Each structure stands twice: as structure tokens, then as C-alpha cells.
Amino acid sequence: MIKPKVVILGGGFGGLTAARSLTSIADVTVVDRHNFQTFLPLLYQVSTAGLAADHVAYPIRGALRGSGAKFRMASPISIDHKNKQVKLDSSELLDFDHLIVALGSTTADFGIPGVSEFALGMKTVNEALTIRAEVMRRFEDLCRFEDNTRFSISVVGGGPTGVEMAGALAELVRGPLKSDQANAAAHIDVRLIEAGDRLLPPFSPSLSARTKKDLEKLGVQVMLKTAVKELEHRKIILKDGSSLPSEITIWAAGVKGSPAMQQLNLPTVGNRLSVEQTLQVKNYPNIWALGDIAGAVGKDGRALPMVAPVAIQQGKFIAKQIDRLIKLKPLKEFSYVDKGSMATIGRNKAVVEVKGIKLAGTIAWLTWLWLHLFYLLGGRNKIGTMADWTWNYLTFDRGNRHIMDSEIN
Amino acid sequence: MIKPKVVILGGGFGGLTAARSLTSIADVTVVDRHNFQTFLPLLYQVSTAGLAADHVAYPIRGALRGSGAKFRMASPISIDHKNKQVKLDSSELLDFDHLIVALGSTTADFGIPGVSEFALGMKTVNEALTIRAEVMRRFEDLCRFEDNTRFSISVVGGGPTGVEMAGALAELVRGPLKSDQANAAAHIDVRLIEAGDRLLPPFSPSLSARTKKDLEKLGVQVMLKTAVKELEHRKIILKDGSSLPSEITIWAAGVKGSPAMQQLNLPTVGNRLSVEQTLQVKNYPNIWALGDIAGAVGKDGRALPMVAPVAIQQGKFIAKQIDRLIKLKPLKEFSYVDKGSMATIGRNKAVVEVKGIKLAGTIAWLTWLWLHLFYLLGGRNKIGTMADWTWNYLTFDRGNRHIMDSEIN
């Protein structure tokens, strides 16, 4: 029997899960513009000097080793539906029987002017290293000024990403930077801006309130019901017309499907791909979509959260769907098993909500810690991350404060 | 008693040693263009995916914590000898009673055309990440070509740096890259080019021969008595007129004093600063130089090797000299205590030469390993490096194969 050819665009959580689930029944090729998977849930720890950049990345060829799946480092340019081929920017044409689009997401600015020019995103290792370098540069400026100049770091967006970022920044400033030069650290403000009336909208209001209190204890200025109208150089203009100085603005207000989906000319809904409940892209029965780039599939028509568990479940599901097609069985409809949400705020501080059970504080924090270690790909990253975390925890230090962005030589 | 003001230009091994030795008797400021020290002896392991970039760096403020020394992230522009001030590119003027120049070295091209355009240097973290990214990109190209195209990586210079680099590259290609995609890895050639008639000139000829044999066992093509005339795009032109294809050329043929020394307008000899046996810069009794940037101080007029132990010994020595001046005691003359040389070639393979004792193989390799861990600054880097090394050793893998240079987003 000739195995069907499956091309998977994107080597993230979803793409790699699909690849590994498919290699026994299909001839699989994974395509990604990076030769590594980025472990996005821990990227904010690279931004805040807690983890080494290399430890939140994992070589895709390493992840696929022994599976028989092929890898191509490239970006897709277009799909030739007639000949069932996808064209890559490496000039290759890959034949496919099934195409899985798992390209993930990019920062969404919701049409707010200035976001792409003046805010820093949180989606790639390079962006994380840029945030780290910018924070450390501003800190070095304050050390040099030796006066009362203040610097503000603003995180826009009070979801899990924004909360984790703001908490980690506050700990960096009040911990290691204070030890480095106390007076300079005392002149850095960390602020979290949220348009809604509470933080962490996916959680219960009691955990939202707890999160706000915990962040404020760490020194974060939490601003609720504060909508951003526009960003300017070192400045945030609010909807009410007032403005805030902001030397560094980090955009955690939302993401949208990767721009590559426009290029591929597939049907979209909102800013994600339009998919059936089977996870097939609308009108294209041999093209599948999963994870952040796939639009609403729930029975209520609500889009699923853009988190790793969704992509992983969908990756496994699509592999089974393709198997059903091969065996001439009917397709099923995807339904997401929500295993709960969690967000870490800082040392011994996190919130976890699983099926009505609410946890906060140290137990929640330990749960967060072990689940992230468990999901981290590869033994070396586990060991390295555990070593960095243990060190940070015991010494209250963060060793990776190096300015290593592309600006330096 | 008012403490004298000491400004130290450069936060490498020598500068930081001097700083820590001086804080009890002087008011110390360290100036460096990076906010971290780079552990240069292990940088080649970043280039070859063995270590995370963050683990060969250490925050200078962390190294100076508790010592009372100040830090400025900046580069020196000029010295005002009359007012005893050094001007920084951050627009600051720092007063000094003593100035210590510890700016290190940069790649030397010996006037060979094309080196700065077509060769990759080995002096900074960014250069190391560029080498890693270039090697991995060429490997991904070969994976895509799926034909008999060959790629050559050439290391120019058969000293310890070139030997360690060539050995580590060969192990990367024959180990992890072979596991990633055996056919592509088999099409990569690693070559070491040396103008002299043996490798490792500072060692005994028997260890040079052993090193050559060990490298060849790893698959490195060792070319002795091969002088480079010029570099072109993807090509090396030799003195005899012949040429070699070389997709990646790594320059390990030598270093010279940092170019900042020209800017500071201090007397030079060859391409390093001209210093007295007291380590004072010629004609400037209150300006000192140490490490790679300091010229010959030996009684025989021979320049000292550009290695960390020289800089560390000189850093301590200059601190004592300044103490002697404060106590109105006569200055002494520096003499270097040579503690031996070592170079690692690969897994269980190294050469060590200490006072006539010659070691090779596993014992030499273990000696190299422990001495480097001992010299590595900071507990976190020790733990992280040990974790990466243990992992690499047990699994024959190298986890940091990520393409993370400034070219990607």
C-alpha cells in the first residue's frame, strides 16, 4: 500500500504532534521557517532573564528523530490545488494528499495605530531577547544618570501572557536589578494595562482579584478599564485622551492567525482560518487546520483559546481523521477537552482553575512548574531549565541578564 | 584617607580580577561595551551547538556585586591626560588617578585580503551564534538538495583555538547532524588549515602529532604548510596559487590588541600596547595595561600568550602595584608564571603540557574539563554547563542546534 503524502506547515506543538502521530500511516514532511520549535509558554522567562534562550527552543529534527518524518526549513508561498502541491520560498514544490496548516499566530494590534512601530511582541525568541536587552539597556541608563529620572515598562493586556510578563518583570526589577544597583532599580515602574474590568478573563472573578492583589504586592501598577487608543514613541495614548510615559511597551493584548494564511488564499473567519467541526478547512476536504490559526470549531461557534493543549489535541485528532479516511471510515467532529487554565504570577504565586477547582499560591505555583517541565520537549531542556529555576529560586537571582540582541557586536 | 580613583577599561578576565583586587584600596569603576563578561575559552562550544549562549556569559554587575566597584556600559573614546579623565561614548567623563587598559583583542587578518568580508571571527557571542547559524543553514540546504553537493567548512589557524573549533565541528557533523540526516551530514567536509609545519606550536612536537592524528580520526582534513593568500566569496586562495572551495571560513589564525587602543592614542608595539616591565604603559606612569592588549613584558622581549591566565595574573599584579604606589613602596617587575597549556580536541581527547609533563587522551580531557568548570564564573553557569556537557556526553547529542542569529525573526 502506498502511504498518503502529508505536508504539515508549522513545527509547533500542534504540527509536531500531528507529525509524530502520522508517520506510521503516512509519508510526512514538516515545514517551518525555523529549525527549532519555540516553547512559547516560557518565552516570557527569556525576556525577564530567568531562562537561557536556547532552553526554550528544541531542534525540530531532534523532535522528529526516528519517526521517519522529513523536515524542510522554509516558509510556504502558495498552494496549487489542482496539482496538490505547496510551493515553498526555498523554491521547492511539495506534493501532498493532505495538507495540515499549523502555522500558529502573530501579534494582533486590533487596528490600534503605533503597535507595530512602538511595541515589542512576545512571539519569537528574537523578540524575547529584544525585550530583555531593552530592559537591561534602560536599567544601565538609569545607573549612569544617577538622578531621579524614572523609566516605565508597560505591559498591555491582562490575560495570562500579560500577567506572567508583568509579574516576572516586577520580580526582575525588585530582585536582581535591586541587588545590582538599588537606586536605579527603584526608579523603574512596571505597569499592567487591561481594557476590561478584571485580569485573567478566562478565570473566576475571585482568582482575578487574587491575581491583581498578588501583582500589586510585587509592585506592579495594575490599571483596569484602561483602553489604549494609540502608541507613540515612548508614550501610550489612552481612549480617554490622557497619556502615559512608557519607555518600553510590551504588547500582550492578543494574537491572530499567522499572516501566511492570507498568502495561502484559504477561507478565513475573523482573523483565523475557517474550519469545519472535522477540522477540515472550509471547502477544502484535504486541507486541515489546527491550533492558533484554526478558527471556531466549538458547537457554540466560539473560537477555542490559543494555547498549546488545543493544538496538541487537534494534532492527534487530525492524525486520526486521516487514518479514518484511509480506512474509509466516516469522519468525526472535534471537541476540545478543557483541562483547565493556569497562570504564574511570581515566586510561589500562581492561579490554577480546573473544572471548578480553584487553586492559588504555592500549590498552584508548584502545579504550574511541574506541568511546564513535563511539557518541555527533550531531556536537556528539562535539565537546563530545572537548573536555572533551582538557581533562581535559591539565590533570588536571574543569571541571564545579558544584552544579546542583534544590536550588539 | 581619600581612596584613589581607578578606572578599568574592559570587563574580561583581567579587568574584573583587577577590579575585585582593588576595591579595598581604591574607588573602582569598570567600563565595558557589554553588560556581561564573555567566557572566551568556551565560545567555540556555542558555535558548535554544545553550550547555550547565555552560559558562556556572566553579568558584570553580578561579578562585581558586594565589591563596591561601579560599572558603566560604554566604550572609551579618548583620554584627557591633563585633566586625568577618560571620555566615554555615553558622553560621560570619568576622573581617574589610575587607568587600567584591559580591552582585550580582536581578530587579526595580517593584511590578508578578504578576511573581514568573507571569514567569520571567534571573539564575540554574536559571532559564535553566526557560525552556529551558518553551519546549520548549510546543513539544511544539503537536506533540501538531496544530491551530491558538498559543503566545506574551513578553519584557518592551527593553534589551540583552531584545533578546538575543528574538532568540535567534526563531532557536530559526525554526531548530531548525522543522526538528523545522515546523507546530508556525509556531504560536509571539515578542514583545518595551518601555515606552519605542525599544529599547536606552543606544545611539544609529539603532542602536535598526536593532535593531528586525533583530528584526522574525527574526520578533519588537516592541511599543514598551507598559507592563505586571499579570501573570496566561498573560496580560499592559497599562496601557491591554487584555491579551495569553502562555504564557511572561520578565522582562528590570530588576534591583535583591541582597535580601541588606537583611538586612545597610547604608544603601541606591533599590534599591542607598549608596556614597561611594571605593566605601566610607556611614558604614562598612571596608565596600566594587561592581558591581550598589553605587549611584550618578558625579559626576552617576547610577547606573552593571549590567554586568560596571563590577564588574571596581571590584573592581580597591577592591583598590588597601585597598592605599592599608595604606600610609597617601589614598583616591581611582572613575570608570568606559566601554568601550562591545554587544548581539547573532542570527546575524551585533549592535550595538556605542564612544565615538561605531557598528557593526551582521556586524562588530559578530564583535566581540561575540570579546569574550565573551575574558571567559569558563577554557580549558575557551572550548573548549566555541567548539565549541557553531561547530556552531550551521555547522548552523543548537541541540543543547541538552533538558528538564532540576527538574520531571523
Question: What keywords describe this structure?
Answer:
6-stranded mixed β-sheet, 409 residues, alpha/beta, FAD/NAD(P)-binding domain, 12 helices, 2 domains, 5-stranded parallel β-sheet, homodimer, 26 strands
Secondary-structure map:
The structure is a homodimer of 409-residue chains.
Chain A: E1 5-9, H1 13-22, E2 27-32, E3 36-38, H2 43-47, E4 57-59, H3 60-64, E5 70-73, E6 76-80, E7 85-88, E8 93-95, E9 98-101, E10 105-107, H4 115-118, E11 119-120, H5 125-145, E12 151-156, H6 160-180, H7 182-185, E13 188-193, H8 205-217, E14 220-223, E15 228-232, E16 235-238, E17 243-245, E18 248-251, E19 255-257, H9 260-263, E20 268-269, E21 272-273, E22 280-281, E23 284-289, H10 308-326, E24 341-346, E25 349-354, E26 357-360, H11 362-375, H12 379-395
Parallel strand pairs in A: 1-2, 1-9, 2-5, 9-23, 11-18, 12-13, 12-18, 13-14
Antiparallel strand pairs in A: 3-4, 6-7, 7-8, 10-19, 15-16, 16-17, 20-21, 22-23, 24-25, 25-26
How is this structure best described in words?
2 copies of one chain form a homodimer. Chain A is an alpha/beta fold and 409 residues long. Helices cover 33% and strands 26% of the residues of chain A. The first copy, chain A, contains 12 helices and 26 strands. In chain A, the strands form 8 sheets. A 6-stranded mixed β-sheet of chain A has the order 5-2-1-9-23-22. Chain A has a 5-stranded parallel β-sheet with strand order 11-18-12-13-14. In chain A, strands 6-7-8 form a 3-stranded antiparallel β-sheet, with no helix packed on it. In chain A, helix 1 runs parallel beside helix 10. The longest helix of chain A has 21 residues, at 125-145. Chain A is globular, with a radius of gyration of 22 Å. The interface between A and B is large, with 54 and 54 residues. Chains A, B: Residues 5-315 form the FAD/NAD(P)-binding domain. Chains A, B: Belongs to the NADH dehydrogenase family. Chains A, B: It holds the Pfam family Pyr_redox_2.
